[in-house]
Amino acid sequence: VKVKIPFGNKFLDAIFSVPEKKSTYGVILTHGAGGDMNFPHLVSLAAYLASHGVLCLRFTCKGLNIAYRTKAFKAVVEYLKLSDDYKLSGVFLAGRSMGSRAAASVIRQLSQDGEEDFIQGLVCLSYPLHRPKLQSKLRDEDLLFIRCPVLFVSGSADEMCEKQLLEGVASKMKAPKKIHWIDKANHGMAVKGRTTDDVMEEINAQVFSWLKENIELEQK
């Protein structure tokens, strides 16, 4: 279902992937610095989640300014929270690369405003922990602030997220967290000798099983 989400004086393009049965939880998903909501990995994950009973709303927000991207993500969260069509108990924020930074930033802001009840967790696909070859400056401040469960899915050969550095940040995080490493994958999740579909299957299954664990914990 295509929708236009109001954002300031314009609209963000977005698509709902709707499961057959009514979903109580949803995932909001966005893209990295390049591309848009039709980036193949996002389309694949959204379809997988919907076919397993989880509503997925993915949206496009162009722009390389992280504050702007965060504002847009926040507008989408508000939109879904107030939606009459999909009455959800909670939502997981997810993004690829820069999109996951924006998601983390939104969660931090909402928790500072005491409004994070709706947010169930964060999914970071290829979180860009540092610029290539610039390991001294880590983008970890939002992660260290977050309290809700976090899943990282990263390539072990990601040039923007060195394995030891992410593990170091994770060990300092107060949130319950899990890292799933895609062996030999780079920042774009490409692995020599594996098809994109094969890699996506691994990612999608990981994301879904983690969501399920956290939804079950929530409902206990």
UniProtKB/TrEMBL annotation:
Protein known as: TEX30 protein
Domain spans labelled KANL3/Tex30 alpha/beta hydrolase-like: 27-210
Species of origin: Centropus unirufus
PANTHER family: TESTIS DEVELOPMENT PROTEIN PRTD, TESTIS-EXPRESSED PROTEIN 30
Gene, per the UniProt record: Tex30
